[in-house]
Amino acid sequence: MTAKPAALGASDKLTFLLSLVPFLMDHDRVSVTAVADHFGVSPERVRDAVNLIAMSGVPGETRQYLHGDLFDIQWDEFEANDNIVLTHLVAIDDSPRFSAREAAALIAGLQYLSALPENGDRDAIATLMAKLTRSSTGAPSQLAVSRTDADVTISVIQAAVRAGTQVEFDYLNSRGTAEHRCVDPLRIESVDNAWYLRGWCHLREAMRTFRLDRMSDLRSTDVPADSHDDGAPLPDTLFEGSADDLTVTIELPEAALGLLADYGPVPVAPGAAGQHSRAQLRVSHFHGLKRLVAGLAGVVTVVDPGPARQTVADWAAAGAARYDNDPAGGARIDDDRADGTSA
Known about the structure:
Layout: H1 10-25, E1 30-31, H2 32-39, H3 43-53, E2 72-73, H4 75-81, E3 83-84, E4 86-88, H5 100-115, H6 122-135, H7 150-163, E5 165-172, E6 178-191, E7 194-201, E8 206-211, E9 215-224, E10 246-253, E11 266-269, E12 276-283, H8 289-295, E13 301-304, H9 306-324
Antiparallel strand pairs: 1-3, 2-4, 5-6, 5-9, 6-7, 7-8, 10-12, 10-13, 11-12
């Protein structure tokens, strides 16, 4: 037996009417039954509300209601087929609306959010983008934000975490060395636009951090993951230093030290006014300096040790040589990124 919809109070009736018009605007043609099911009211209540809406509007300059001052519907469709089709809106079309350019910017942002792996409710985002498209003053420019394979990788790892099994993958570290890894996945985290897997690496027999975009041939296994509740706690911070880290001295303007906050620089020789100062960094290997120097070209200079300077110099020279060998000047320098992973 179908339960009878609860009676609506005065405030509920007003809320229903205020919600009904936007709902009808989002649906070109909708049946009374569908509206009743959506709002949890009786079909009779919907019909009464539609009749009331058709007698509502905004008076004109003469303070009288003329035909163009009232909402209107397709009465034949309503009375014969019990369908609601709005044909004339009042005042709502005069409300502030996004321009085509503003709507395009918002849609681009929503597309970017939809592409992020942590945003699972993509249907809600798609609905909002459709509303922005319909409600703008003009047709927004067609935009597309490309997606990566990170969401697929995350879904595989999340499934392994739920099942309590290990994952296997080939991993390419920033030194360019590829190794096969078997990991007990514990956590997935993001820093800026990069995603990382944290877990127990059976090859290293220690907790390690891996960048997802350096993985290949990722697969979940049937091997149960070990419990790490006691013996190997997961550090609170994403990147942890170790006794094997290397100390590098760099030179840069003192005002630029804030740009290296992720590296934890330690000032050792403050410069005079207008001059460069020196600081020390701890890195897992000298290859990690490539990304730092490339991102702050002309700002950071590697001072010592000599092997660190030589590593950066060789990498820069190899990149410049590729341009010298390309008559079209279209060669692309490979980004051997130092991502801070402890692989």
